[in-house]
Design goal:
Blueprint (H helix, E strand, L loop, with lengths): L1 E4 L5 H8 L3 E4 L5 H8 L4 E4 L7 H7 L5 E4 L9 H6 L3 E4 L5 H17 L1 H9 L17 E5 L3 H12 L3 E5 L5 H7 L1 E4 L2 H7 L2 E4 L13 H5 L6 E4 L8 H10 L4 E4 L18 E3 L8 H19 L23 H14 L4 E10 L8 H13 L11 H7 L3 E7 L9 E8 L4 E9 L3 E7 L2 E5 L4 E8 L4 H11 L4 E8 L5 E8 L5 H7 L1
Helix pairs in contact: 1-12, 2-3, 5-7, 13-14, 14-15
The structure holds nicotinamide-adenine-dinucleotide and D-malate.
């Protein structure tokens, strides 16, 4: 497959991707070039410089399977448009959080002790000890806006400095804050009013855009300092410059800017400002981690597998118990659709039983539904566009969990659909040791077969001679039966034959067997 790397990433990631794919590294491309190229690639990898907008995604639709961000923030990818086109969007969310937190702490100390200003004065030949008296951070209040991954790491580090910690983040559990020794406040205004240092660790969203404006800055103490290692446009730069000039606040340390690269800013001329050019993630460790992590995720996405960091796939993180069942769930979805002859109505029921029932099984339901749709679709069906496609076809997913099942004691998945005549069709599967897949139920009849590439399923009334007849029909077409399983409800009752074949069967032969 073809992968476009549109922003510089560490060599290790490029190398990993090049092992199995044709990789083009073309950085700094303008939008019109990306629109022209998008349809020739299966994956695009970016950092924060390149924006992947709706036009580029529309141009890539049909072929483009994944947009991967070698870093955390996804404000440069139109996730909604990607979802509409069934394109997975993923990032490397853990890759650079330590680096970003450490950079925040570096800026905290730099702005508290005027380190860059003193450095510049000294290297300019001025010994200005009295000009650059700073402030200790011990005993001061650190106000944290956004107590997520990076905010949490900053809290832990600043706790060690003896700072008092206060945070505003209405979406985190109070227990999480309490464990960190952080006082969680109900309003941002409360935190701004009591903090000596305010550090921003929010995502860039419509709610946070321009959040720190003139009015918010006016809530801060005149002795307070503001840090932003999150995203530029969360803090209004003009308002901040004005507040620093007027003495509304005492200082600021800024790593990120509304427009980047930022070569001109009202902040640059001010003496009480420390700036860095978006260096939060710029460590060798973070860059290696981000590149390797996205390379692995792109690999998974291109193989049609579940990507743990996909942000537009419902279901959230997948644990080790659930993960091995994902391919089985998809196979069951495909199989049950085949048995129904393609025409389905209404509900697709996915039952997860046994140990699985203790977990969040939503991803198994979604994967089975994807199998159902993929079996009858000529467009790419991904975990991203599955809910939308299902809705379009009038199918809806019903998920059931059953702790104990007498019929199948081990953990298993059963998928039920209804054909156009309203007949329910159920298949079930389980994993044996070493994650070997087994079909354990077909047309509601117990079987025990390892699924293979070519299979045939027959349903008939139990009577002598059927195996011989089917064997002869297949032999005429030189189709070899590798193994066969027969299940029946009762002697002379409904019977099911499952054949594992070495070759595919042609339609006329199938018709003859029917
Ligand atoms: P995260 O998603 O783990 O944490 C963000 C927190 O903000 C969450 O706890 C969330 O509940 C909270 N939040 C969201 N909207 C909010 C709102 N309106 N009001 C209050 N709280 C809100 O993200 P993270 O990984 O900690 O990253 C934080 C920021 O840092 C992001 O903007 C990311 O892009 C940026 N970042 C910058 C650099 C850099 O190089 N400077 C590096 C990595 C990440
Ligand atoms: C991120 O969101 O990961 C950072 O801003 C760093 C980067 O852009 O690579």
């Amino acid at each position: 497959m073809h992968v476009l790397i549109a922003d510089p990433i560490a060599a290790e990631g490029v190398e990993l991707l090049s092992r199995h794919h044709q990789v083009d590294v073309k950085t700094g491309l303008p939008k019109q070039d990306l629109v022209g190229l998008a349809g020739s690639y299966d994956a695009i990898v970016v950092r924060s410089q390149t924006t992947i907008d709706a036009d580029i995604l529309a141009a890539g639709a049909g072929r483009l399977k994944v947009v991967a961000r070698a870093g955390v923030g996804l404000d440069n990818v139109d996730v909604e448009a990607a979802t509409r086109h069934g394109i997975v969007v993923c990032n490397a969310p853990q890759s650079n959080i330590v680096s970003a937190a450490e950079h925040t702490v570096a800026l905290l100390l730099a702005v508290a002790r005027n380190i860059p200003q003193a450095h510049t004065a000294l290297t300019d030949g001025r010994w200005e000890r009295s000009s650059w008296t700073g402030t200790e951070v011990q005993g001061k209040v650190l106000g944290i806006l956004g107590l997520g991954r990076i905010g949490t790491l900053v809290a832990q580090r600043c706790h060690a400095f003896g700072m008092h910690l206060a945070a505003y983040d209405p979406f985190v559990a109070p227990e999480h804050a309490a464990r960190l020794g952080v006082d969680l406040h109900d309003t941002i205004e409360e935190v701004l009013a009591l903090a000596d240092f305010v550090t921003v660790h929010l995502p860039k969203t419509p709610d946070t855009l321009g959040l720190i404006d003139t009015a918010m800055l006016a809530r801060m103490k005149p002795t307070a300092r503001l840090l932003n290692v999150a995203r530029g446009s969360i803090v209004d730069e003009d308002a901040l410059a004005e507040a620093l000039r007027k003495g509304t606040i005492a200082g600021a340390a800024i790593d990120v800017f509304a427009t980047e690269p930022a070569t001109d800013s009202p902040l640059f001329a001010l003496p009480n400002v420390v700036v860095t050019p978006h260096l939060g993630a710029s460590t060798a460790e973070a860059q290696d981690r981000a590149a390797v992590q996205v390379a692995e995720y792109v690999e998974l996405a291109l193989a049609g597998d579940f990507v743990p960091s996909a942000v537009n796939v419902p279901g959230g993180p997948v644990n080790d118990l659930i993960r091995p069942y994902l391919p089985l769930a998809e196979k069951l979805g495909r199989l049950v659709t085949g048995l129904a002859g393609g025409g389905l109505d209404g509900e697709v029921t996915v039952e997860c039983a046994g140990e699985l029932a203790d977990e969040d099984c939503s991803i198994l339901g979604l994967t089975a539904l994807r199998g159902v749709l993929a079996a009858t679709s000529d467009e790419p069906v991904t975990l991203v566009n599955t809910p939308g496609l299902a809705e379009g076809r009038g199918l809806h997913l019903k998920q059931i969990t059953t702790r104990h099942s007498e019929a199948h004691p081990s953990s298993h998945i059963r998928v039920t659909v209804h054909d156009r005549d309203g007949q329910a069709i159920t298949v079930g599967g389980s994993l044996h040791p070493a994650h070997r897949e087994r079909l354990i139920e077909v047309w509601s009849t117990p079987v025990d077969v390892e699924p293979t590439r070519h299979m045939a399923f027959l349903r008939y009334r139990d009577r002598p001679g059927i195996i011989g007849v089917i064997g002869s029909i297949l032999a005429e077409e030189q189709v070899n039966i590798a193994s066969a399983q027969i299940g029946r409800s009762a002697p002379g009752g409904d019977a099911v034959m499952v054949l594992c074949l070495d070759q595919p069967v042609s339609r006329p032969t199938l018709a003859a067997a029917a």
